[in-house]
Amino acid sequence: MRKNLLALAMLLFVSQVILLAEKPETKKGNNPVVPGFHADPEILYSQQTGKFYLYPTSDGFPGWGGYYFKVYSSADLVNWQDEGIFLDLKSDQVPWATGNGWAPAIEEKMIDGKYKYFFYYSGHPVNGREKQIGVAMADSPVGPFTDLGKPLIDELPEGINGQNIDVDVFVDPVSGKPYIYWGNCFAAVAELNEDMVSIKPGTTRDITPVGGTLADYNYREGLYVFYRNGLYYFMWSVDDTGSPNYHVAYGTSTYPMGPITVAEDPVVIIQDPGNEIYGTGHNSVVQIPGRDEWYIVYHRINKNFLNDGPGFHREVCIDKMEFNEDGTIKKITPTHQGISPVILTGK
User: Fold this and answer.
1) Cα 78 off chain centre by
2) Residue 77, beta-bridge partner list
3) Out of 40, 147, 315, 319, which one is annotated catalytic?
4) Which tens digit of pLDDT belongs to each residue from 314-325?
5) 40 counts as catalytic
6) CA angle at residue 60 from 59 to 64, to 5 degrees?
7) What is the CA radius of gyration of the chain?
8) Phi, psi for 344 (deg, rounded to 5)
9) pTM listed for this prediction
10) Which of 153, 172, 194, 298 could form a disulfide with 133 if both were Cys (CB 3.0 to 4.6 A apart)?
11) In terms of C-beta density within 10 A (0-12 exposed, 13-18 middle, 19 or more buried), how is residue 72 classed?
12) Burial of 67 per CB tally in 10 Å (0-12, 13-18, 19+)
């Protein structure tokens, strides 16, 4: 009898050990918001669906070799649904590119009484020249998307050196005019035509913020633009994307084409080594409809890859962004906790 009890106890012990081994590690917070390696997150709130959509660069490929784009959807900014790959630069979908799909932008626009979606991204062209920027269109934020079939931007702005990457598109709520921004080591802007897939001739200009250091606002890439209370906010990334110091700075303007006035305290979000958070950069921003409530969406370097591929092992995070009474942005402390689920009203 005693042997049977001992055997039963041992069986229960082993079963418990197996259950504990199979139980996934409890997540300490909501950041990162989606599993796996992703970077350069672009976020959209869709008026058509009443949901949020996340469009990142696919990461984890040596040499930033990601070649496809996925989209995730969410009703609350916390729980995300993988909607799959919608654009593959190595397929027949994109005849002008061979890969290196980076740093996208998305815009929802009402055209002829219907919502249309315009997805902008950079890729490596089949002609082997420098990076170029393309655009694909859809009737739904999750696709299917149809590429324009040729690059939207295939030449560097005159007199400028750098890369045609890191695109952003902004429709001015004041004038209704659409603008496109892009550039690594420079910041260019041009006015888009109403078709959203061509640039108005003669409107391209260089608006690169001048000066600064790698400790504050020296411009590198990732320009992002939004509007609040009469001001146009310009956010950009500082330092190299593989540096723990990679961070976001900002300035403002009274016009969507600049010039940009750098903020007195320009750093918006930067690494927190004490909490093992590094390389917090390349962001987008989302406002909750009908409320002065804002969130910053950014990537950080996975802490396990600081010395082994830090530039292409990144993960997407979301934290709250707040403003002072004078309109300046409060400095954000990046967190593992992330945010609480957002409850939308009237949906």
Assistant:
1) 16
2) none
3) 40
4) 999 999 999 999
5) yes
6) 65
7) 22
8) -85, 140
9) 0.91
10) 153
11) buried
12) buried
